[in-house]
Amino acid sequence: MDDLVTARLVLHPMTVSEAEQVVAGESASGARWGPGYPTDGDVSAARRFLGTCATTGDPQPFGNYEVRRREDGAAIGGVGFHGAPDEEGGVTIGYGLIPSARGNGYASEALRGLLPFARARGVTRVKGDADHDNIASQHVMTAAGMRPAGQDERVRYFEIAWTGTTANPDPHS
């Protein structure tokens, strides 16, 4: 599968080998990791990806993507799906960046790159959530076109849904 490229980022589909390196905390020769990569969230996502690969096979295109800066190729986080679309065409997303990369709009940019990609592959609804006190993550989802969709005692839920069968790369439509 090819990389997804945005203005400043490359969303690289994670391979089993790369996920194993993330879990081990050891990059392959030539791989560039930003300071603090991988985070605990990246390791958790890589473990989930490896588990999926072991039980049902590679979930791509609905797997994990390593977020890399185009300017230097450094891995600065991850974005991806928690699995293939459900029977109604819905998926759940997750994302995270190393602390030094936060506050630059990278997470919103990565999510804006992933949403039309998902829609073009038949996804009808993308869901995500953020802890009540994680205002930055809530801003990421709204900046990418997702809207609040409820809350519980722990998190606020966000989603974007599309109707019709025509894929439209604009996540705001």
UniProtKB/TrEMBL annotation:
<feature type="domain" description="N-acetyltransferase">
    <location>
        <begin position="9"/>
        <end position="165"/>
    </location>
</feature>
<dbReference type="Pfam" id="PF13302">
    <property type="entry name" value="Acetyltransf_3"/>
</dbReference>
<protein>
    <submittedName>
        <fullName>GNAT family N-acetyltransferase</fullName>
    </submittedName>
</protein>
<dbReference type="InterPro" id="IPR000182">
    <property type="entry name" value="GNAT_dom"/>
</dbReference>
<dbReference type="InterPro" id="IPR016181">
    <property type="entry name" value="Acyl_CoA_acyltransferase"/>
</dbReference>
<dbReference type="InterPro" id="IPR051908">
    <property type="entry name" value="Ribosomal_N-acetyltransferase"/>
</dbReference>
